[in-house]
Structure prediction request, 478 residues.
Amino acid sequence: MGWLSRIFKGSDHNKLSEGHYYKEDAGYYLPSTSGVTNDAWNQNQNQNENEDIDRAIALSLVEESRRANNNVNDYRSQLEEDEQLARAIEQSLNLESPPRYGNENMYQPPIQYFPLGSRICAGCYTEIGFGRYLNCLNAFWHPECFRCRACNLPISDYEFSTSGNYPYHKSCYKESYHPKCDVCKHFIPTNPAGLIEYRAHPFWIQKYCPTHEHDGTPRCCSCERMESQEAGYIALKDGRKLCLECLDSSIMDTNECQPLHADIQRFYDSLNMKLDQQIPLLLVERQALNEAREGEKNGHYHMPETRGLCLSEELSTFSRRPRLGTAMDMRAQPYRPTTRCDVTAILVLYGLPRLLTGSILAHEMMHAWLRLKGYRTLSQDVEEGICQVLAHMWLESELSSASGSNFVSASSSSASHTSRKGKRPQFERKLGEFFKHQIESDISPVYGDGFRAGQKAVRKYGLQRTLHHIRMTGTFPY
Prediction:
């Protein structure tokens, strides 16, 4: 064994230096002064050889242990170097995204390191080894497996958006979730604070950019929806515009409105509110209606535009009761004035849909009924409020009869009224609900608050008792 011979040589060298041996060609000889016998010398020699063997074995074990430790350390160092290299590659190639902010849910996955074998792709469900990968949405992904929910193409952009647990390209997210203006069809811009700000109609939920309220975009004079670039509105002769859906049931002249006028008269008859006078009806343009309004002293007019008007005049006559007596007594007898109101006509704006025209006509006919029945001058909120109640009741009767059920008024003495019209188109029913919504949600003190007070009284006491209380007190019963 080579290692044993090297140890022995080292041992011999040590003995020579320490024992002062002398070497000759024939062999080794002890000094003459040693005083040691040959047996003793042999015994000592054997003991020294055993010690050398033990020492050699111990040294060999130490050397083998040291080599084993060096091999382990070298292996560990190699693993650490490999892991550091893999991390550097991953860090340089790893796809990142910015943190989530605003309304687009931007997201930037943090850089994390996991032991090899613990990363499973959430797209293909296979193990992700060293190389490129994504850590976002609480999962790991191969880059080619991280796909947009909308277009199903891989997301390789630095920024992306999320909705729920699904990723989107920024452009796909905007196309899917960013609201568009229903007027100009563009994406509604954000305000200086970075928030999406838009306007919406309270009934139709038509979303549009705030700028369209001031840029002259026309509205339908019936349903109030803004004109979009895709659907043109019809211009009427007096400057108003009408959408195509409202145009479908619009009434354009007086002769066309006569059947509707007769229907509303029957509606009043069913409520035991027959009018004693045949009231003329005229459909007019906006300018003519505004001119007639300027000359009419009675009533309150709903701004910004009046759609109907009841024209009336007070006729005063003087009479005296003849008494028996001298001629001088007869000349001194005072005259007694008698005043009565005569309804001359009802004016309604032309070009409006049938249900809106009918609700305006029902409102104005209630004005005529109050004047013909001799009701004293009422406050604006009471008179306009009860007229709105009748317009609302007529709309309810039309919508309920069109759906197959009969209308029952709020009065205890009223009769049923069924429209002879067939089932209405879906938009016309929606339009009728909108006109009801306009009456119910009116915020004006006269038309809005007056209607709500009158409707509450009619629902509680019935129409006839409410009208009797108005005649006696000039107010609604509570």
Q: What stands out?
A: The first helix runs from residue 2 to 19. The CA atoms of residues 105 and 164 lie 9 Å apart. The two ends are 124 Å apart (CA to CA). Confidence is low (pLDDT under 50) at residues 1-41, 92-104, 108-114, 404-422.
